[in-house]
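Consider a typical record:
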Amino acid sequence: MRILVLSLFLIAFLGIVKGQENFIKPGEVWKDIDGKPINAHGAGIMEHKGTYYLYGEIKEGNTWLVPDQGWECYRVPAGGVSCYSSKDLLNWKYEGVALAATTNDPTSDIDTGKVIERPKVVYNKSTGKFVMWMHIDSKDYSYARSGVAVSDSPNGPFVYINSIRPNGNMARDMTLFQDDDGKVYHFYSSEENSTMHMSLLTDDYLSHTKTEKRILINQSRESPAVFKYNKKYYVITSGTTGWSPNPASYAVADSVLGEWTNLGNPCIGNDADKTFHSQSTYVLPLKNNKNSFVYLGDRWNKLDLKDSRIVWLPLEMKDGKPEINWKASWIPITGK
């Protein structure tokens, strides 16, 4: 009996170890603690009370090409937004669908026939609400709006409110940046993706103020990822080449609403000119290491979007400049 119990214990222990991730391996299939591939694309991360929450697009089903678009407008049915939680950025627990898509309702912004992309979540200390913004579009990308949802819990369910064109502007690829004073800024590609816009959200984070600025004017940048370092503000963006990778570029400013200067590609080494075959989606600061961040990107598989891969890499600040180097495997040091 003792041998049987010990054997069962060893089997259980080995099963637990097998489900653990010891390294981030960019571009490989990344599984959650239940052994299922993480399905969170165009993702963002929010830390709340010592836990990291990962939000991303759910990509499932067959990939198809929207006809007569003049570009590679590949799509899968909009799957809503997933949520995962982690203490170490390595091992992720699936928390479920944070924002569910509707079905067979063409009037709904979040119907499976629409586009739900690049969800980002911030916590509002004043209201106690978790607020999600995302890119909402029609399958042909003509809608160009931003949608907002709210929840009482970080893992949802989020309740969808509505979508808008911020201050009347087209809005596609986007991110949120929450500054040290709690103010939140919405960065989004606008003007047919030729120019980036930035708008200050209201105190409840549910709508836009009239405080806004056009940046990277006529530079055709998208997929913004914003972070702060030594009182300066940085945004990493990609070019506009559809699903195909291109060189990343970073811009810097002394204040969010100040003048932004584009300073070139932060990637170094082989395949730097293709951002290591990825497109930026978020930059996460690592606690207790002021020089270290995590670059989050997607390696899109345009012919089979559900098989797109996650590419996370270390981003180090050196002399005020961000550097992203390829690592086949690495460990983020999260601190306490």
Residues 32-325 form a domain with the Tachylectin-2; Chain A fold (CATH 2.115.10.20).
